[in-house]
Amino acid sequence: MKHRHYFLAILALVIASAWVIFGGQYPFKLGLDLKGGMRVILRAEPPAGEKLTPGLLNDAKNVIQRRVDNTGVAEPLVQTKGGNQIIVELPDIPEEKKQEALDQFQKLAMLRFVAIPDKYEVVHGEPTTFLDKVTRQQVPSSQVLQEGEVIVTGKELLPGKARGNLSVNGQTEVELRFNAEGRKKFADYTMRNVKKYFGIFLDDEPISVPIVEEPIPTGDGVIRGSFSLEEAQDLANLLNAGALPVPLRIEQVTDVGPTLGKESVDKSLVAGLIGLALVALFMIGFYRLPGIVAVVALLFYAAFSAAIFKLIPVTMTLPGIAGFILSIGMAVDANILIFERLKEELNAGKTLRAAVDAGFVRAFSSIFDSNMCSVITCAILWNFGTGPIRGFALTLAIGVIVSMFTAITCTRTMLYMLVPTSLSHKPQWWGLGYTWMHPPEGTVWRIVERWKLYFGISGALILTSIIFMGLMIGKVGSPVLPGIDFTGGSLMQLKYEAQVPTADQVRQALAPSGREESDVTISAGEKRVVIRGKHFASDATQAAAECEQIEKALTEATGKFKVEAFDNVGPTMGKDLTSQALKAILVASVLIVLYLWFRFTSLDFGLVAITTLLHDAFVILGFFAVTGYFLHWEVDSLFVTAVLTIIGYSVHDTIVVFDRIRENQRLKARGEPFELVADRSVTQTVVRSINTSLTVVFVLAALVLFGGATIREFNTAMLVGIIAGAYSTIFFASPLLTVARTYGERRKQASSRRVEEKPMVAAGGAAPRPKPLPKPQPKPIEAAVSSEDVSGPAAPAAGGSVTKVAPKPQRNIKKKKRRF
């Protein structure tokens, strides 16, 4: 009865999720690639006498990137244009937030703590003013700022440590944390200037002028003022992003359309639906009735996830969809783990209720550990990453948590509801029996003993990857062929006279010149088209000819237009963003090793899991090095997302096998070698590994075949990575763990051996003589004792033994005849 109540509660959640999805009150928030947004062009205007360098412009671009990220706008596009412009594109930003975002772009956010000279009197109010104590006339704040001693500046703030909150007495404040040098300066000033005023100036305007009541030995600062909590948090975000190194002026603001184009999005949606339909058919065909339960649970999972995406809201972009696809694979994986355990228990002769109980208990540790490592990875990526990396981490984390809920509650409840029905007595409905993938009980596939073969295959793949990455480094200076997201490129801005073409029509016109993968942004209201593509030829004549060819092709295919701008643009994935992603992967790897060390009580599990992760990363990098060398495939920001996806999948897949090894270690017979335990564990989990990979491969293969050319490289990278992850889980991780464990045991045995200590010199001063070997003694031959011998007088006393030595055998010597 209680399971029916649980199921009714689940149905209530599904109905509530459907209301959120289809009610219209909470619209989906889509990114630049799916919906478009607002495009802003900023022009850098340095003060008179100062020179604007490329480094200064790039620093300003990084500050704008951090400010946009702090406002909560997900996955913006920020890049430099020419020598003095910055392009900012914000996805699906509400109308009431546009002006606030524009104001953020122009604030310098230059913070300074300045000592107020004694000759000035502070008049608190809105705003704070200063009076000359002698003339009693108001003095401009710029004069006070110029004459006062600068104590500390915003450059000495610790990045990301400013916090806007409410104090104990309910006053709004902004807490500041300085670095070591800033703390020392501020602490020294407060010790020397008790009962004196100092001003906190932001962009030459005083935002707070407090008095030093007592020395502040910690050197931390607090800004208090008549501002709301939201304003305090905005100020903290502004300070955390840093000050602009050069003033910026807004030059142009336009609305833009999606970069992918409607045709590409429609193709991807159709391909995704085809892939999910294949997954549903496979689950039902392989697992029968539990497969139907899994499909229903996946529908619940999709409803819950979509509702959460709308409520937060999550900006859906292609990287976010990638994280969602991976979480679908993990949701299917949780169900497959449960169903495989369920079949093991049913084949062992248990009832359905007992099998469901045991299956969930035994599968829970695998589900928990693998998903926990995925959540750790997502948390680190969110903390270190920006833009598309954060979007991927957020959608994957939500998907992982929801998938655990649906597997543990929805699937379990529906299985329990089948227990009292007649279906619980029909083996054919539960896919029972033995196949080549389900060998009979006790069968063990000897995989580990062929570890040299599998290591040879992996070594050949990695060596090939290293060779081609080396060739690419020699050719283009990078292990893979970087696209415009990493290198920058060219930008053409066109103004059409009549109807504006679609993004897909523009790409088709660019195909003959090899630029069909360019980013195309449409501003339908202003009849503008912006094309971002790879660099033109360095030779001016060749570049002009190429530009003329593109203009001619576009005119014939899309109509007349005027070229408004033609310039170079900087990368959207700068070195800072790439280094942050690498740092995040490194930190996540260390935390995963520590977590697995804690959970498995052995360090080698974590180290082997990370080695397997690196194996899969090398395979995918090598694949794109080969395709870049021969087919000129470029990698973009989506490639980073694909690699992160594969890393998450690799760790998740490997931990499931390791969990079974841990379980079998506790149940093994005395003296059973670790190699046999590992082989048995792989044999028991190989069906789960293959089926989980197949469900994701179905979706990705459909996307590669039917998803369009704009995301071909992304889908191909995902497909190659999933296949590599399935191979490494079965044929690389377990053999490597066995080899590492065997090597460790041998070293332990070798170190435990003790050599007997003997004196090298005898007591008399001479070297000890070796003991003479004992002379071999003839072995006595026991003669058979008959009953007569035992009963005779020569019989020994009771308890003795009779041993007769046989007479020495005589040689048969013929007598020689004597000759006389």
Tags for this model:
single chain; 820 residues; alpha+beta; Alpha-Beta Plaits; Gyrase A, domain 2; Multidrug efflux transporter AcrB transmembrane fold; 4 domains; four-stranded antiparallel β-sheet; 55% helix; globular; disordered C terminus
Structural class: alpha+beta
Poorly predicted spans: 781-806, 815-820
Examine the secondary-structure arrangement and name the CATH architecture of the largest domain: Up-down Bundle
Q: Would you tell me which CATH topology of the largest domain applies?
A: Multidrug efflux transporter AcrB transmembrane fold
Largest sheet: 4 strands, antiparallel
Lateral strand order in the biggest sheet = 3-4-2-15
Number of helices: 21
- Just give the CATH class of the largest domain: Mainly Alpha
What's the layout of helices and strands?
Layout: H1 2-22, E1 29-30, E2 37-44, H2 54-70, E3 77-81, E4 85-91, H3 95-106, E5 111-115, E6 120-123, E7 129-132, E8 138-139, H4 141-147, E9 150-153, E10 163-166, E11 172-176, H5 180-192, E12 198-202, E13 205-208, E14 221-224, H6 229-241, E15 248-256, H7 262-287, H8 289-311, E16 315-316, H9 318-347, H10 352-384, H11 388-418, H12 451-476, H13 484-487, E17 489-496, H14 503-510, E18 519-523, E19 528-533, H15 540-558, E20 561-569, H16 575-600, H17 603-630, H18 637-667, H19 674-706, H20 712-752, H21 787-791
Parallel strand pairs: 1-16
Antiparallel strand pairs: 2-4, 2-15, 3-4, 5-9, 5-12, 6-7, 7-8, 10-11, 11-14, 12-13, 17-19, 17-20, 18-19
